[in-house]
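User: Reviewer 2 asked us to show a designed sequence for the structure in our supplementary figure. I'm pasting the structure tokens here. Could you produce the per-position amino acids so we can include them in the response letter?
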């Protein structure tokens, strides 16, 4: 079983990332602060060795305008959950 935070934490972090949509012009500026912070949190929560590329993708996704709707933390959690479930049945 791989390192994985709680589902609630992932939803919360994705919600924080989506908050920039509330204030369209100012919100995109907050992504300059949130993007590196989110990437750091992502790598810390999911483990560095295998998830550093995911952290880099999250950083890029948060910096690109209009891509804040992607729930990167939650999608990673679901992917790891499915992977663990598959291992248990194999």
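Assistant: Here is a per-position design you can include in the supplement:
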């Amino acid at each position: 079983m791989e390192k994985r935070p709680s589902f609630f934490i992932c939803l919360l972090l994705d919600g924080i990332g989506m908050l920039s949509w509330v204030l369209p012009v100012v919100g995109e500026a907050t992504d300059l602060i949130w993007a590196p912070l989110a990437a750091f949190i992502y790598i810390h929560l999911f483990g560095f060795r295998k998830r550093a590329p995911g952290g880099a993708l999250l950083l890029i996704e948060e910096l690109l305008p209009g891509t804040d709707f992607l729930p990167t933390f939650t999608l990673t959690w679901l992917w790891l959950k499915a992977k663990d479930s598959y291992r248990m049945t194999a």
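For the response letter, you might also mention the following. The first helix runs from residue 7 to 18. Helices lie at 7-18, 24-46, 48-63, 72-89.
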